[in-house]
Each structure stands twice: as structure tokens, then as C-alpha cells.
Amino acid sequence: MEQKILIVDDEAHIRILMEQTLEELEDEGVEILIAGDGEEALEIIKTDKPGLVFLDVMMPKMNGFEVCHAVKRELKLDNIYIVMLTAKGQEYDKQKGAEAGADIYMTKPFDPDEIVEKAVEVLKIDRQDDQARGDWHLVN
To answer: Where residue 51 sits, what CATH number does that domain have?
Structure first.
């Protein structure tokens, strides 16, 4: 099964950093998709059905809460795991993210290792057996 990760952020340098962080998963057939705003993200989610979405909160056109709400509450795509990424760590924002249907909330600046670990966990990538060699395998 082809695995896809969607990175959604209106800031190009964040998208590039996230893509560089996750590019090692491409060797295992994980496709990295990119969106620069909420509307573009929603279109990609509808057509490509990524298994994991790293979704920024503050964006033009549609913010992350609106995208998350559309995916989880309107389209009922519960099999898409959404990680809300934001510079705001206030409890109110976390509550709003939970209400929109976000699976977890991570604040910027993020730890690249945490991002990769979350992707491996969500997409069920098995790297135990061959970790010594550095090989990764998808578990279907």
C-alpha cells in the first residue's frame, strides 16, 4: 500500500524543513505531498487521501482548524491522521484543535526526530529488524 504524507504550511521555509525531515521515508515508498494553504490542502486530501497530514494552524484562505474540521467532521475521513502544527501552544488552541478533530497537537519549533517518529508510528513503518543497517520497511 502506498503511503502518503501531506505537509501543509504557508511558510516556504517550514515546508522545506519538514520535507527534508521526512525525506528519509521516501526510500520506503512514502510519497511527500506539499500544500501552501488550506484550500490546496483540502483538495489534495480529497484526491490523494494521505495517511498522515502535518497541518499548520495559521494560514490564508482556510486555516488549519477549518481544514481539520472539513476532513474529520464533514468528509468523515477518520483514517487520515492529522497533526496540528502551530507556534501557538495555548490551551485554547489545543482545545479548538481537538474540537476540529485533530489527532495530536505539536508546537513549533518542532523536534525533527519527533516528526519522523510520529510518521513512523502512524504509517506503521517497521524499522526494528534492520535498524542496525539503517534499512526501513513498511508494514502492511
So the answer is: 3.40.50.2300
- DSSP symbols for 115-137: HHHHHHHHTTEE-STTTTTT--E
- CB proximity list for 84: less than 8 A, separation 6 or greater: 55, 57, 64, 65, 68, 97, 100, 102, 104, 105, 106
- Residue 18: C-alpha distances to residues 14, 21, 32, 73, 113 (Å): 6, 5, 10, 26, 11
| Number of compact structural domains in the chain | 1
CA distance 122 to 99: 21
Domain span including residue 47: 3-138
93-115 residue pLDDT tens: 888 888 999 999 988 888 999 99
Whether the model clears a pTM of 0.85, i.e. scores above it, the answer is yes
- Window from 12-21, 32-41, 67-76, 127-136 with minimum mean pLDDT: 127-136
